[in-house]
Amino acid sequence: MRIAGDGSPVLLLHGIGGSSASFDAQIAALAPKHRVLAWDAPGYGGSADPEKPLGMAGYAALVGRLLTSLDAVPAHLVGVSWGGVIATRVALEYPEVVRSLVLADSTRGSGVDSERAAVMRARPSELNRVGAAEFARRRSPRLLAPGADSAVAQRVEDIMAGIRLPGYTSAAESMAETDHGPRLSRISVPTLVLVGEHDQVTGVAEARRLAASIPGARLEVLPGGHAANQESPRRFSAEVLDFLSQADSVVAR
């Protein structure tokens, strides 16, 4: 867990191939105005490995307990990819701890159909077979837009090379079991949906579906691919800061 700044709390939730390090640029940009909390999910970064798969409900419960223990409720939740799916479940199950949602390059979950679920469930076997470094070398280019900056591409690969099998296996199973589509209309907090225009992992169409299904949600398409927060950090952070300011104004009124 990384904590910086002061102000209304913001919890950053990373993707399945990331960690809190994926949010270096956002921590720096948001901390002047917000209390920024960037978690390492169980089995990622500095967090202990889970003893068994947690399920999406388990991750949501952990987030709720974490925010309460840190006296950080209600918090803005900013989730990228898998982190956005966790954030969605928190908003559905524990709305009292959520001030607003930012769902970036995210999805309803991989359980929307059996093929996507099967693909997700197969990934830990590949990770176990080839190792984290080779897994990252193979998969990280798909997170980036064509012609992405080489330093950004290397950073994305390096972060993914730090994933560990227990954490990844639990995360993949939570995605495979989840389809939030039928419940999205129940979300009642201000929501911003962001997506990279070249996202080939979850895609612009899925982002549009999220935005259309969540009452009052707004969609912004950004330069970059699935890792838009790392490829276009200034634009991403500016969109988030503007949205959080609006959400805080609503709370204040």
TrEMBL record:
<dbReference type="GO" id="GO:0016020">
    <property type="term" value="C:membrane"/>
</dbReference>
<dbReference type="InterPro" id="IPR050266">
    <property type="entry name" value="AB_hydrolase_sf"/>
</dbReference>
<dbReference type="Pfam" id="PF00561">
    <property type="entry name" value="Abhydrolase_1"/>
</dbReference>
<dbReference type="InterPro" id="IPR029058">
    <property type="entry name" value="AB_hydrolase_fold"/>
</dbReference>
<dbReference type="InterPro" id="IPR000073">
    <property type="entry name" value="AB_hydrolase_1"/>
</dbReference>
<keyword id="KW-0378">Hydrolase</keyword>
<feature type="domain" description="AB hydrolase-1">
    <location>
        <begin position="9"/>
        <end position="229"/>
    </location>
</feature>
<dbReference type="GO" id="GO:0016787">
    <property type="term" value="F:hydrolase activity"/>
</dbReference>
<protein>
    <submittedName>
        <fullName>Alpha/beta fold hydrolase</fullName>
    </submittedName>
</protein>
